[in-house]
Amino acid sequence: MTENGNKGGSWLLAILLISALVSAAICTGSFFSLGNDSVPAYRDPELSETLVRGSIVDRNGRYLAIQAPDYGFRIHLSDASAQEAAAFISGYTEENAISIANKIENGATFIRITDLLDSSDFDLIASSLADFSLSDDISPASVERRRYFHRAASMVGTSDETMHGTSGIEKLFDDELAAVPEISSAISHGKEVRLTIDMTLQQNLYDAMYVTARNERAAILSESGEVLAFYGKADDEELRSMVMSIGGEPYERPAFPEKTTQAIRGYNAYVSPSTSAPMIRAVINAILAKATAEP
After folding, report:
1. Angle CA(12)–CA(20)–CA(293) in degrees, nearest 5?
2. Residue 3 contacts by C-beta under 8 Å, 6 or more apart in sequence?
3. Shortest CA distance to 202 belongs to which of 62, 91, 16?
4. How far apart (Å, rounded) are the C-alpha atoms in residues 141 and 146?
5. pTM, two decimal places
6. Distance between CA atoms of 207 and 11, rounded to whole angstroms?
7. Which residues pair with 159 in a beta bridge?
8. pLDDT per position as a tens digit, 120-152
9. Would you state the pLDDT for residue 148?
10. Residue 47: what pLDDT?
11. Phi, psi of 230 (to 5 degrees)
């Protein structure tokens, strides 16, 4: 009996310690930085002039996925070596020449430029390429890509090179997001899909869960049942419940299929049943404590 009591006390102490660490990390913003997951907001995108897949945005209109050009260099080596091309390109990126050369040697045909450019920048680059006798080997170019602003990746999903959805919201609402040419015009935009997700809460939940319970599922819901943040693998019904509107029109979405397990600070929370459930509730409470304390 004493041994069992000690185990229970140790588990409670562990939860309290983890809760304190999570609260401190949320307040100081000291969660792990996960490389490409930390993508700054993409503002005023220069969209394609022809077919554009619809954007996916959060409840406040912040981009979660958008089609826009990546500016960079097209590689078509003739006389120059990969090292010569990389030495030139490294002056326009945050990547070093050795890394760029390795990519070129391994078959890369496009190297992204860190900063967005305009036509006058392209003219200057073209002139510099001529000065270094590299015009036949590399050229400034732009490539249409689907950009993702993560921490919402599990729900937003992915698309392929043909700009069609392969998973998540991208796949489930592919018909709405896809750009279809109009008879009278070659220009067409797919519909925007707006989610109920709040990107700030989403990022905080993602960071906290990744550190403390990365294989579990959790959600933060409003009092009315809108999913404000979600972590984990979602099925189609759950994904549909996160859609607020399509193309600006209200969307009759189903309710979040799982019953919430606890009301916290005026919000509702869903926590997947597991041995980590007490820890996850502590994580969510710390996130919402910070959210409700902010002006």
Report:
1. 125
2. none
3. 62
4. 16
5. 0.70
6. 23
7. 165
8. 777 888 899 999 999 999 998 877 778 887 677
9. 82
10. 58
11. -145, 140
